[in-house]
Structures are given as C-alpha cells and as structure tokens.
Amino acid sequence: MNALTIYRFGRWCYLRGIPVIPQLAYQAIYLLFNAAIPMSADIGEGADLAYGGMGIVLHERCKIGRFVSIGHQVTIGGRSRRWGVPVIEDRAVIGAGAKLLGPISVGAEAVIAANAVVLHDVPPRTVVAGMPARVVRTDIDIREYSCLQPPEEAEALSHRTTDNLLVTRIEEPGRVPHVTEEWRELLADSAADGLFLTPDWLMTWWEHFGADKTLALITLRRHSRLLGLAPMFVRTRRFGNLVPHSSMECLGTGVVGSDYLDVIIRRGHEAEVSRGLAEYLQRQDAVVTLSHIRRDRPAAETFIAELEQAGWTVRRRTIETCPYIPLKGHTWDSYLASLGPSHRYNFQRRLKNLHKLGTLVFETVEKEDQRRDAMAALLALHNRRWDERGGSEAMQSLEELAFHDAFSRTALERGWLRLSLLRLNGRPIGALYGLRRGRTVYFYQSGFDPAFRQQSAGLVTMGLAIRQALAEGVEEYDLLHGTESYKFLWTDRTRELAKIELFPPSIGGLLCLGALRGEAAAKRLARRALPEWMLQRLIALRRKAA
C-alpha cells in the first residue's frame, strides 16, 4: 500500500461524483505519508512516487504526465497572485526536495535536480538545478536518469501488478548499463547469487550469441527499488521441428555452459515478485524455458507454482549433474586426508615425480599479457588432449573463442580469473581455467600435454588448483556440470541441474506441447526400430544442422 494506490482509488470515485470517499482518501494519504495529494490533481499512468509518496505536496489543479518519477518531499504548487500551476509532461524526473511553483511547464524527459527551486519553464530533455533552477545540461538521454519505459513502449513492455510492482522489459542492450549496478546489488541480496547470473557473464554472452534473438531483461520494482530480475531472451523456436512459436529462455543458455541460471529475487520479497512475474508472463503467450537451474533450490519455483495454478503445463527433467567439493573448515592437509588413500598417495607420488624431472612451477595469471598467453596455451593443451579421442566440442567455434577472450579479460579486471599453467622447465604441460567469485571457485576447463600422461599432468594441475583455492580461503570448489571420472577422484558430492518448460494454456502453447510429445514418441520408436549405426548418423546430421 502506498499513497499512489490510495490516490488511484480516490480519484476513481472523484471522477464519478461519489461523495465522501475522495476526502477520506485524501486524509488517509495525509495521515499515513504526511503528504497532500488532492483527488482533483491529474497524475498519469505509470507514475512513481519515491518512498510511497512521503512528504509530497501537490496543487489541486496540477497535471502530471505519464511515467513521471517524483522524489520524496517534492512540492508542486502555485505562487502568490499567479493563477496557473505546474504542468509536468511525460517521462520527467523530479528529484527529492524539489519545489516547482507557479504557471510553469516541465518538458517531456526533463530532469529536475534534488532541492531545485523551479520558477520558469523547463525545456524538454534538459537538466535544471539550483535555487533558482537553471539549465545545466541539454539534449540528455532520459535513460541515464530513469529506468521507467517511455510512454510509447508502456503497453507492450510494462505492467503494474496486483501488488503494485512495476514490471518493465528492457529490449535494447544499450539500456542495460543503466541497471548494471542495481543488478549486481540485487544478485548479492538474493538466494541465486553466483557467477553465471552476473551482468558481466550474461551480457558478454549476449554480445556474442544474441544476434538472432530479442533481449528480454524483465525488472520488477517498488518505489524505484529493484526487487526482481529475470534475465531472458525471446526467439522463434520450432517445437518438435513442426510448430513455430515464441520461446522465452534464460540468457546464457546453450553452448558456453552456464550453470545455475535462474530468476533473481531480493530476499524477503519472494512471494510478491513471483506473483508479479507470473502475472506478467501470463500476458505474453510464450513458452518459457528455464535451463540449467538448480534442482534443489530454484528461486523460480514459486512463480512456476503460480503459473501451474493458472493452468500452465509444466515439464521438469534433470539434465546435468555438478560435482562439487565442500572446502569450508579444511586445510590442504585435512582435505587430502578426507580423500581415499590410493588417490591421496597417487597425487603426492605424481607431484614428486614431476619435481624430479626438473623445475616445476604452478603459476596463475595476474596481468593482461599473461592472460593472452595462458589462454592460447590452454586451448592448445585442451585440443592436443582431445585430438587423440576424435576432438573436443568445447571452445571450438569462433563465437565461443571470442566470448572467452572477452570474458576472461573482464574476469581478470574484476579479480575473478583463476587461469593457471603448470610449467616443467618453462614448458606448459597443464592448464586450468577457473573463476572465483565470493567464496566459490568454478572449474571451467582444463588441458594437459599427452606426452605427460604417464606423469598425470592433468591430475597434478587440478590438485594444485584446489590447494591454491584453500590457501585463498575458498569454501567451495565447484566442478560444474559433467560426470567425467576424474572429477570423482576429488569429491563424492553432487547437485543436479534441471530444465523446466512451461506451456501457456493457449492454442499455441498446447500445439507446442503436443509437437514435443509427438517428437519424443517418434524417437522412442526409432530407437526400437533402427540399427545403432543409423541412429548415430541421424543424431550427427541433426547436430550439424542445428
């Protein structure tokens, strides 16, 4: 409940000539928010009053346009011996404590600085400040000052929920930098906090893989405070290779291997944000796919339940397993002692044998020139390791390579990069690409020289990376998705990742669901009827076509 909600109800009664209630609404606003907002004042849709409207004073004849943002303690009123009162045009931003007095006009997308006293007209797209206010900037981009969508986009991209949250959808990548710091702060105050939901990872992904997609960064706010964010994109997907339909999916989905994707919800606001997101998605008629989310504690579960209650069909399945190593409370020695005696002995013996061959150095990248050389060494060792097995599918395409070059540069700048080389007499024989954020290190990729297979160069590189993480005070070493046998030499702990598909109760949604079920039935029939070599050939052809 805020002053604007009470005003909307009172205004509705005022316009219909219903007595008593408008006056009661005015008094309620005054008592609850110490604000004077007459029901005769005209406030356009999408307006936002900071802190619920605390301390705001409006003249009974003032006119406020659509998607205007008003700070607390603002006065919009008349002047002595002047009949006219301010008119505020669409998308203006009025800072806290500002005073707008007399027959003035504030142009569309203008900004009034905090505590400014405005006595004269303000041209559109300008910033005014001071007492009395004067123009300090012209020809501004309002997106630098407000996260609300412009009026012409409001119906398509904005929604006010039953809990009075403002839901907006950002489709232009150029607007994302204006919410980046809020995104980071929200993520830190959520249960979904992790590397793969940072704007750094996801927007780097978008830059390299978003060409045939439409960005759909969905934000949920109350009083301008960001409470929830769903980082998504929209594309046309052919379900079952038959039915084309709009598909909304998580940013980061696909080839680069983003784990623990989810929606981001501020702690303590899970219920209202989930309801608001469910309300918004019901207006879209898109199939929603959430991939690589944690099966044990998805933040999205509450809004999924809301959609299920609204008649949506939900399909869940486990798609990946992530081994991880709990390190909290361990030293390197105590962690080694927790492993099986054969593996512990094997690691120590292999490390000792490598030392006997010459000068063994485990080094981690600290500078940009080191990063470039280490990434090249990692790719060479990774490909050399897999060449004898028919080649690797990871980090092969030009888009993937460009993505990792860009993100590893960002990670180095932010102190996240844990890109390490194991050198023997100056020659790289092992490489490991890890990323640290908070108390977790994520193991992403590795490689080793097959000439040192007998010396277990890959095993030693992994062990030294874990030892380094413990020395840094890391509490978890996450090996990410994949059940390769070498990962289980270091841990027996796992968590599962799920894929959740939500189909709207519309004709389009039901057709998509039916097409997928038909495709699954055809696959089962093919497995029973076709020889194995033919199945593998068909699978390879389909992957190549995709």
UniProtKB/TrEMBL annotation:
It comes from the Bacteria. GO terms for molecular function: serine O-acetyltransferase activity. InterPro entries: Acyl_CoA_acyltransferase, BioF2-like_GNAT_dom, Hexapep_transf_CS, LbH_SAT, Trimer_LpxA-like_sf. Residues 342-487 form the BioF2-like acetyltransferase domain. It holds the Pfam family Acetyltransf_6. It is an enzyme of class 2 (transferase). Its EC number is 2.3.1.30. Keywords: Acyltransferase, Repeat, Transferase. This is Putative Serine O-acetyltransferase. The lineage of its organism: Bacteria, Pseudomonadati, Nitrospirota, Nitrospiria, Nitrospirales.
